Amino acid sequence: MEAKSILVGVGGGIAAYKSASLCSLLVKSGFDVQVLMTEHATRFIQPLTLQALTKHPVIFDTFAEPNPSEIAHIAVADRAKLFVIAPATANIIAKLAHGLADDMVTTTALAATCQTVVAPAMNVHMYEHPAVQENLEILKARGVIVLDPGEGPLACGYTGKGRMPEPEDIAAVITAILEQQQDLVGLHFVITAGPTIEDIDPVRYLTNRSSGKMGYALAKQAIARGAKVTLVSGPTNLPPVPGAKMVNIRSTEEMLQGVQAAMADADVLIAAAAPADYRPVEVFNHKWKKSDGLPNIVLEETPDILATVSRSRREGQTIVGFAAETRDALTFGRRKLESKGLDLIVVNDVSQPGVGFDVDTNQVVVISRNGEVDKLPLMTKANVADRILTRVKALRNSVGGGRTV
């Protein structure tokens, strides 16, 4: 194997067929891929398929030693730079958590010293079972990267959480781990994304046009650079970010609670969400009908997440805010930076084409508390996210974290 060698472990679940796409993507990205399978996995997809894609014999028999001069599961483990198990069934996850080794995948996992990535895939009730969740927490505590499964229709007929992450997303995480700089290792980022919803009645609500794309881009880039990420997300149409701890919320109050809980051991908060500023004082129990006349909707302010968290921050925590404006963007941005006690603020004028909500590009100005201004050109949100993270890293290096409290 070459330097960029990857082990792909395939468990015995219906999602095993997706391993072919994953292997193909990794090979096309220039990685040398060796596939390991459980015996049960071979019933879902033929080893010959994966052999043809990777140009390596697939190893699934623990007692078959193709090279008598070496022990297969030790040799491949020693050469690997990363071990991804996709799909990881409940059975495999339990074995990994408790050190059991009775197939080629789990035996090799015990011998591997490289970074391990696990992509769970199973029925929603199995995934939510306390034993499975406890096993996943054990793996996370050991430094295993556990990808969040997707949500949607499952092969068993249920709809819910348990879909194996898409091969493209898994490949992106792998590429990021092996090829990008890991300068945020050891830091815990809390990132907010998307809108919040404030109910008027069971049918109607107040919200805004935020798509969550900027916050999700920040989460992906932070993970790619080695950070631990908690993503507190309002309702969006975006898939979960692989590798992030997802905290899904609906209202501004719920977002505040999610952020406060995550900030207990966090180093950085990047508040990229657009929480609703107002909510109805009274929520109607039933849909308001036209025949009822014009409703009298009295509004009150929602909690100020940034101001609240900034007041209670621990020493060394860094807080970054966003300001989406339609006029006098820099003036309002600087005012928000000071009034909320932020370390950085990212300002954009959402009235400009290609900027702001529900597009894949953004043009921002990053202002720091010491007055430094960095005007970025129009670029993809992924690139904007990378530049913001670099500024956060530089700020923390220069002052040892956030403001002294």
Automatic annotation (TrEMBL):
It holds the Pfam family DFP. The active site is at 156 (proton donor). CTP binds at residues 277, 287, 303-306, 322, 336, 340. Binds 1 FMN per subunit. Residues 185-394 form the DNA/pantothenate metabolism flavoprotein C-terminal domain. The keyword Translocase does not apply. Keywords: Decarboxylase, Flavoprotein, FMN, Ligase, Lyase, Magnesium, Metal-binding, Multifunctional enzyme. Pathway: Cofactor biosynthesis; coenzyme A biosynthesis; CoA from (R)-pantothenate: step 3/5; Cofactor biosynthesis; coenzyme A biosynthesis; CoA from (R)-pantothenate: step 2/5. It catalyses: (R)-4'-phosphopantothenate + L-cysteine + CTP = N-[(R)-4-phosphopantothenoyl]-L-cysteine + CMP + diphosphate + H(+); N-[(R)-4-phosphopantothenoyl]-L-cysteine + H(+) = (R)-4'-phosphopantetheine + CO2. Residues 189-405 are annotated as: Phosphopantothenate--cysteine ligase. Residues 4-174 form the Flavoprotein domain. Its cofactor is Mg(2+); FMN. Residues 1-188 are annotated as: Phosphopantothenoylcysteine decarboxylase. Its EC number is 4.1.1.36, 6.3.2.5. GO terms for biological process: coenzyme A biosynthetic process; pantothenate catabolic process. The keyword DNA damage does not apply. In the C-terminal section; belongs to the PPC synthetase family. In the N-terminal section; belongs to the HFCD (homo-oligomeric flavin containing Cys decarboxylase) superfamily. HAMAP family: CoaBC. Catalyzes two sequential steps in the biosynthesis of coenzyme A. In the first step cysteine is conjugated to 4'-phosphopantothenate to form 4-phosphopantothenoylcysteine. In the second step the latter compound is decarboxylated to form 4'-phosphopantotheine. This is Coenzyme A biosynthesis bifunctional protein CoaBC. The gene is coaBC.
